[in-house]
Amino acid sequence: MASANDNKPAPGPVDHHIRRVFRLMQPSPHYADAAVPFGTARGRLAGRLPVSWIMLAALTVTLFALLPLGFVVVVAIQSGWDTVYALVFRPRVGELLINTVLLTVVAVPICVALSIALAWLTERSDLPAARLWAWLSVAPLAVPAFVHSYAWVTLVPGLHGLFAGVLVSVIAYFPFVYMPIAASLRRLDPALEDAAASLGHPPWRVFLRVVLPQLRLAICGGSLLVGLHLLAEYGLFVFIRFDTFTTAIVDQFQSTFNGPAANMLAGVLVTCCLVLLAIEVLVRGEERYARVGSGAARQLRVTRLGWATVPCLLLTALVAVLSLGVPFMTIGRWLIAGGTAVWQWDEIMQTLGHTLFLAVAGGLLATIAAIPMAWLSIRAPGPLQRVLEGSNYVVGSLPGVVVALALVTITVRVALPLYQTLFTIVVAYALMFLPRALISLRASIAQAPIELERAAGSLGRRPINALWSTTIRLSAPGAAAGMALVALGIMNELTATQMLAPNGTRTLALAFWAYSSEIDYAAAAPYALIMVAVSLPLTWLLYVQSKRMAGR
Amino acid sequence: MSFLEFNTIHKRYGQVAALAGVDLRVAAGTRTAIVGPSGCGKTTLLRLIAGFEAPDRGRIVLDGEVLAEDGAAVPAHLRGIGLVAQDGALFPHLTIADNIGFGMERRETGRDARITELAYIVGLDKAILKRRPHELSGGQQQRVALARAMARKPRLMLLDEPFSALDTGLRVSMRKAVAELLETAGIATILVTHDQAEALSFADQVVVMRDGEFSQVGTPRELYLKPKDRMVAEFLGDAIILPANIRGGFAQCTLGRIAVDTKETRDNARIMLRPEQLLLKRTSREGMSGTPDMLFGEVVEVEFGGPVCMIAVRLVNSPEPRDAAAIGNTPLILRKPGLDAPAVGEIVRISATGKAHVFP
After folding, report:
1. Which chain A residues have a beta carbon less than 8 Å from that of B103?
2. C-alpha span between B227 and B143 (Å, rounded)
3. Residue of chain A with shortest Cα separation from B154
4. Interatomic CA distance for residues A304 and A300, integer angstroms
5. The complex's ipTM?
6. Which residue among B50, B86, B133 sits closest to A198, beta carbon to beta carbon?
7. What's the predicted TM-score (pTM) here?
């Protein structure tokens, strides 16, 4: 449990399972509690860096973050029961619900099974070039889901419906399950498997009864992340003409703008998200899966595949071809077909500029907004702080379309001048990706113990100076990593950008979307390539952090 | 006919020879301790017996059944050998009852009764069975691990430093309890440890390992009093090692004439005395005169340590002035009862009891 402070930000709009994994990695549950007296004493006596101000800031951020949820509730109340009933209990919603449930129920287990197989092969077998396959199992994250879908649709034009939805979803999202499972597999105590074998259990039963139960947290967290992505995804399902709540909301929005129908669908979607969160909490339970003993972990045993090596290699190769080969091949094909004509450099540069500006602005705002909460959760944890933090994570798990719809409604009704402004879109990004920034910051502040700040104080630094020269310095790398991950999210964001961005804004995702909607696949290809190229290093960062979390 | 037999077991990890051809015999129902510094290969040996790894060469036979021979090996789950690991290795996702019952058939009749009985045998309260491993203390966890291993009625029990995570008092009592328990059950036991006191007090047979080889195998008394070489001697306890000439059952050395355990005649031999064989008797400078055949020393340092204190004594009239330069400046370090220990500057008469051991 040594590397307790390592964090693992995830690329999804919801990172809250990782917060739990992270909590699991803390040296002990007492650690946070032990900080209480110090934290408050510091604020009261020595530091005069007032906790109350920070609390107020955190409260403000949380209230902002709760806007989308509040919006759903308020709209439902304002519309009245009859309207709600008429709009929610109708066949169309039933169809969407069936689609969504089917998609989740089929795709998530496939993701889990595939991830367990890949994680076991890359971590626990003597598969040749295991490190390469591990990286190839994470790399699909660098390809935005709608680019996956674009690749498949142009490769197999007739692809649509549930089967297509499951296929592309699994390919686009299985790394979210793979990463935590692989990390957990690395972290397992090999002595447990030895013990089970010495108690007379053959290898497969050891896996079922000892290894698998210990992967439960990872499986739950990863599945939740995939499930929430399935609920939130828009572009992927539009390409393959599979209707989900999110695509329906966007359709409604585009046809009737801010009508009650869209708002009610958003309400149902939020309910689905909350149901997923609740299911995950129930399934996960309150177990402790950390190592019980204190002994040094031995090297994990590696299973010899023998004759099975070739079929296993075929499986990993097949996954790599489907998840990376197809998008890269398609993009390459369109680039060749398009020739130099598709490289409209002035337009591309302008798009890139817009994207980078939004990504940096959103990343900065999210990180700044996360500072008070992160600081409180490490230095002055308490019931109120826990509620605040929890609500931030719940809001972070809401689909972008709901956040966007809420901000559209609020700006149109209350603050029209802010509608479709830079301010609103950046706020939307900050709300959507706050958990990413929060997790990174939290972990890095935890790495800067209060003792250092006190030492700086006892060496004659003024409180603000002490804070600056210790905690802020030490947490800067974590903050930067969090900011990078927020930026990654913003760069590939489509739905909220579409709905909220000021007229004339052109991000990479928007440009890609505009061209591919006009079936000008060749013109869309350069944007897809740029998105993938920029995302790859950030995905690498993610992969490295997920490994570090596992103590390696 | 021995119960467990190894023949020239070899095991390499890459370039490192973890085991370089070891042979061992363990009699049925006995306790064997394997002791050595970390990295000597003792854990590897245990893993080979348990079946987690296969030897590169050599043969392991348990009760007439070949477990491993030249690379091929019976897998661990078919061996019926119990294992208690260093930290217990309890399954964190199962209750204590399920941990203990892990090796039993799930539908075995009387399973619950047997779990309760096993818990009772290892001295665990019944109330603990519903808890989870992390709610237990280190000692309790080890008891659960033992009960879990005993549930399989193993032919042989392997203990991989099971007491090292416990604090001192608990370690001694656990060791005693486990030894009695396994003896009553008639299960042969192999204990791996780096603690020589643990090995000496636990086992009928002690194996000292070093660099993948057995330095010496024998009873605890044999190993302690008649070690084969300096390394074994010093590993098992404090030792005073002196150059000496051996004649007719006596050694002539810096400590004078001392009885030895051999009749041979040898010059330039090395003898070993355990410090507790040297007795100190208070006297004074005046008491030294007129007794040329007696050996005297001056106390140069006393370190108080509660019941036992460490006393450094410098020889003042060594009969061997030629070698005295060496030993005369290196005081003898002895542990003596703290009660009534001599003070710094006092003169003591030194005498040896028992026989010194001559290194072969």
Report:
1. 199-201
2. 34
3. A199
4. 13
5. 0.78
6. B50
7. 0.79
